[in-house]
Amino acid sequence: MSTRLVVQTREIDQVEDLVAYADPAAPLAWLRRGDGIVAVGDRVVHEIRVPAVDGALRSTVIAEAWRGLAQDAVIDDPLGLPGTGLVAFGALAFDEASAADSVLAVPAAVIGRHRGRTWLTRIRLTDDATGGDTVGDEAPEPREYGPHWAGTVGPGAQSPQGYQDSVRAALARIADGELSKVVLARDLVGSIPAGSDLRRLVRALSTGYPDTWAFAVDGLIGASPETLVTVQDGTVTARVLAGTIGRGADADADTAASAHLASSTKDLDEHQYAVQSLLAGLRPLTSVLAAAEQPFTLKLPNVWHLATDVEGELADGDSSLDLIGALHPTAAVAGTPTPVAIAAIRELEPFDRGRYAGPVGWVDAAGNGEWAIALRCAQFAAGADEIAVTAYAGAGIVAGSDPESELLETRVKFRPLVDALA
After folding, report:
1. Which CATH architecture group holds 5-127+149-421?
2. Annotated domain spans of the chain
3. Which of 181, 406, 409, 413 is catalytic?
């Protein structure tokens, strides 16, 4: 018998802290500038979990399963806002060969906010989609935060020296003409006390970095500055980030840092690879597509990025999950040419990235959704005595890259998560 869902969304009084409604041990959340969606409690009514699949993209398997689930659902959603109605939270592996599962989770209740309006969605399974009791629209109660906690992380499988050696090996491949760019990451590992309230980390990231997409899905928690793709009513938008420099210590140094990034041939070349990768993936699926000719500098609390916004119109009603399959992995997180870069990453990184640099976000019944690239993030895995933490950060390697400078870039990118953990 097929899975059928009954979904009901109702507007409720405004709430100040969405994260307070999440499960402390396994939050599901997607937040930006105070708006977003959060699963209420820990109950998941349906989950699509996909390991490595021979001969098929995991995103394709998930997209087909979601399409069938959404078509059978009975949805009562008078608001029609982004994030209302039937929604699922997702996190997909970076590499199709990764041992990490790709997952799409449908929670039993979702609380959300968009431009001053707040709602509650309840989702339940039913054997008879036309019968049964109504879902109910009583507002849930927030959960008090657990005690403050702190965690520490240190070098993982890839040491700082090992990372510089990997960068040198990548530069040799670039000089030999194997590829133009490859993004290499390193890891930090550590732990936090068992029973820690992970909502505190989500809240710290979402308030400390409000212009990023703060997320928590299946133990993956972070704050990404880079969208992979957003789909709303047939309009596709995306933002490419590639090229990074740390913020200056004072106003003059900060202005100089921004100007240096904007005129850096190395960073402009790296950025152009990423933009062209995204456009090549979107063109077959869009009827109209536009991108700025020159990137702008995007200011975050700890770094400047080169950024380019892209916008288009879907050609034939594909969903945001379909676009993930066409776009991921982009040159911004893999390299150019992408298949050669993926092979180089497997050889030069001494660990499985898991979902780091993979798609993370949400999708609704119509295929609308917001998907970021899982950056500035860590994977949390609960054990008997502690919660293991593995954090990741990477840098784009192109001709002219300096191993020591690329290591410094990863340190800057680790800072948001390391500071929040501490």
Report:
1. 4-Layer Sandwich (3.60)
2. 5-127+149-421
3. 181
